[in-house]
Amino acid sequence: MGLAGLGLLLVISSAWARERPRWVASGGQLRPSVVLVACDSLDGRLTFSPGNQTVDLPFINFMKRYGTVFLNAYTNSPICCPSRAAMWSGLFTHLTESWNNFKGLDPDHVTWMDLMEKHGYRTQKFGKLDYTSGHHSVSNRVEAWTRDVEFLLRQEGRPMVNLTGDKTHVRVMEADWQNTDKAVNWIKEEAVNLTQPFVLYLGLNLPHPYPSPYTGENFGSSTFLTSPYWLEKVTYEAIKIPKWPSLSEMHPVDYYSSYTKNCTGEFTKEEVRNIRAFYYAMCAETDAMLGEVISALKDAGLLENTIVIFTADHGELAMEHRQFYKMSMYEGSSHVPLLVMGPGVKEQQQVPHVVSLVDIYPTMLDIARIPVPRNLSGHSLMPLLRGKAEDESSLGESRPSWVLSEFHGCNVNASTYMLRTGTWKYVAYSDGRSVLPQLFDLSEDPDELTNVAMKFPVIVHSLDKTLRSIVNYPKVSSSVQDYNKRQFMSWKQSLGQNYSNVIANLRWHQDWLKEPKKYENAIDKWL
Known about the structure:
Strand content: 15-25%
Number of strands: 16
Family: Belongs to the sulfatase family.
EC number: 3.1.6.1, 3.1.6.18
Subcellular location: Lysosome; Secreted
Oligomer: single chain
Signal peptide: 1-17
């Protein structure tokens, strides 16, 4: 496997320092190749201080040293398929109508990779894609469709940890390693011989939690699994135990999320610390796969002419706010890593501007010198990557001072909209009236423990006005409610007499089977 270690890092570092990117090729300017490594569920705050003190991530640090890290990068929807639909389309979630993990892009939607291939790039994809419709479990889609029903059911297994193997066990997430191997082999055997630029995508499932078989149909994923090899990369003393409000003090949407995620029970500090430690260890394994790709590019002599991008579809709460998983606008869930290195990218730069995953699409086209369509929700990151971050005027008026994220899927009982601008994070729900909004000042309250919406009504009014100018969110929320009901009715009719048995044995079966008639009646009332 040739796992990259400290020695290999030093070799790559010295070579990178010696071999500056060659901008000019025969016949004119050379278009760089691009490698995008996108993992699943990596908290972006781990890529800079103080979050990076909890776990050793040498290749993320390598990218920071020889490239740019974005300090405020966000998902456009904190769940797998809708987030990836935004990244591959360059469009906000309410425009793609990717409402849940079952509803993504149409298979024929034109992605940035399609356009790059059309304009002369050799393209290759390995690993997790998950941006088109029709995937994920029946439970996942039914839980999303029925979120407006007046019942409360645990939909996930209780979060837990599982230690496997010994201190020599490196390849824990074997499927991801196999896809990494495919990407590495493609670089060494195919890319090295190309006479055209290439774009390579590697999608990793880590550090997403692993399935928990006892949870039933297609399993929930509430197990944080790693080996002693990776756990040694974690600094236990640096792990922060998050503060939790009492259940009665929680925002109603947070309580629903915490309950459906099976997190309202008692957890000891040791349990919470272990969940977080195992999660960080899974991030370390992810970092090593990124390292394999960087090492392969160096070995093939391609690194100096390749732009490398590392990001994730969303973060992981890891027991912050009494939740695991994502599906939340809190930083652990919505803040994603975004690091870029390569020709034309400023080194050792930290960009404070708010950016989001819809910016990937126009950035890819900008790199490839392809005209960027005007209808995109995102904006090219290239001006920031070139070092224009300190010169606001050079960015022009096109890049907004805000980012938008929205969520319409399972484990949350109201459509949710987040506007992040300046030091503020504003979160609105549903129709803007039936559920109280949240407002956090991230400069004073980075852990988002105090909702100051009642304290600053003028700011709430101003931010809500801005949000409504971007998206008519009461109308979108209503459309999602109609969609959910239509989809559920169609699914119910397709099952015929099997309906009662099937719905009782989804992931919520442990609660449902206690009072099946009660829950069926609640759905009938909703319909």
